[in-house]
């Protein structure tokens, strides 16, 4: 019995570690971009101390890629400030784009920033970004998809705007309300066109849909689609695009992007299918 319990516990711990590992980021540049994103968005961080129930609040003041260090505001309470400077490690938790971020650094060194007490730490070896979806999703500006529609003996193409994208699927805006939005409908040989990326032939299955009212008061459909029979090469191409867009969003937030059309939910959305 003891062996069985130990084995079950080991299996559970291994599964937890494997699930946690898929959220980890090890790239020094990507870690720096994410933390700089926290700085630019002025998000506060919870500061936790090892072997202590104490916690404090801090914020990022500077991310230095030349020295691979980060400057944080010193906690307001003197006791927490002293604890931060004598701890062998520091854990930081916060959010960026409503996604939980967590990372642990080594000890902090006292620093002065803009004449105020601060502390400097080295980049963490890894950072966890707990994306709520199984597939990371990014907004798309300027992307579209051409979908073949068969009407009797004739075939024509409907063009939809790609609102967001993941390696598992896409959200498509059907402004002309020309597509069959029945859950389970499959569209094959669709041409996915993303900015600065070669056109890609994909198949889509409708998973859900909503009616939306655009800023010009016109009724549109937002259709949630899942990729069907996507090859590993096609998935890798989409994933590279997603990674590039996410790095641009994190590392270049101060640039003004082309505004995205504004949509609001219609008063009575259609029945949503399974996601």
CATH class of the largest domain: Mainly Beta
Oligomer: single chain
Adjacency order of strands in the biggest sheet:
1-9-6-5-2-3-4-8-7
Q: Any idea what the radius of gyration is?
A: 24 Å
Count the domains: 2
- Which parts are unreliable, with pLDDT below 50 for 5 consecutive residues or more? 1-18, 252-275
Instruction: State the separation between the terminal residues, measured CA to CA.
Output: 41 Å
What is CATH's topology name of the largest domain? Answer: Thrombin, subunit H
- Strand content bin: 35-45%
CATH homolog superfamily of the largest domain? predicted glycosyltransferase like domains
Number of strands: 17
Give the H and E element order. HEHEEEHEEEEEEEEEEEEHE
Helix content: 10-25%
Mean pLDDT level = 80
Taking the sheet with the most strands, its summary is:
9 strands, antiparallel
Looking at the overall shape, the CATH architecture of the largest domain is Beta Barrel
Shape field: elongated
Structural class: alpha+beta
SSE diagram, text form:
Elements: H1 2-21, E1 24-25, H2 28-40, E2 44-48, E3 55-64, E4 69-73, H3 78-86, E5 90-96, E6 99-105, E7 109-113, E8 116-122, E9 127-130, E10 138-139, E11 144-151, E12 154-165, E13 169-174, E14 186-193, E15 200-214, E16 219-228, H4 232-251, E17 263-265
Antiparallel strand pairs: 1-9, 2-3, 2-5, 3-4, 4-8, 5-6, 6-9, 7-8, 10-12, 11-12, 11-14, 12-13, 13-16, 14-15, 15-16, 15-17
Helix pairs in contact: 2-4
């Amino acid at each position: 019995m003891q062996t069985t319990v130990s084995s079950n516990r080991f299996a559970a711990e291994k599964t937890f570690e494997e699930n946690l590992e898929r959220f980890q980021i090890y790239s020094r540049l990507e870690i720096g971009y994410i933390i700089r994103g926290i700085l630019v968005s002025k998000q506060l961080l919870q500061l936790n101390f090892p072997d202590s129930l104490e916690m404090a609040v801090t914020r990022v003041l500077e991310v230095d890629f030349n020295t691979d260090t980060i400057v944080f505001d010193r906690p307001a309470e003197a006791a927490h400030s002293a604890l931060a400077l004598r701890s062998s490690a520091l854990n930081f938790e916060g959010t960026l784009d409503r996604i939980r971020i967590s990372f642990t650094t080594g000890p902090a060194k006292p620093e002065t920033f803009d004449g105020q007490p601060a502390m400097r730490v080295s980049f963490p070896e890894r950072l966890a970004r707990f994306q709520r979806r199984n597939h990371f999703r990014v907004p798309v500006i300027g992307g579209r998809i051409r979908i073949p529609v068969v009407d009797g003996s004739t075939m024509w193409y409907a063009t939809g705007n790609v609102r967001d994208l993941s390696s598992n699927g896409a959200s498509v805006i059907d402004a002309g309300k020309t597509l069959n939005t029945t859950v389970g409908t499959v569209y094959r040989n669709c041409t996915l066109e993303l900015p600065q990326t070669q056109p890609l032939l994909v198949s889509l299955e409708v998973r859900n849909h909503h009616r939306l009212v655009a800023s010009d008061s016109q009724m549109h459909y937002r259709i949630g689609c899942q990729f069907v029979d996507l090859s590993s090469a096609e998935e890798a191409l989409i994933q590279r695009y997603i990674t590039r867009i996410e790095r641009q969003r994190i590392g270049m937030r101060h640039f003004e992007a082309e505004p995205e059309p504004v949509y609001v939910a219609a008063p009575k959305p259609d029945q949503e299918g399974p996601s």
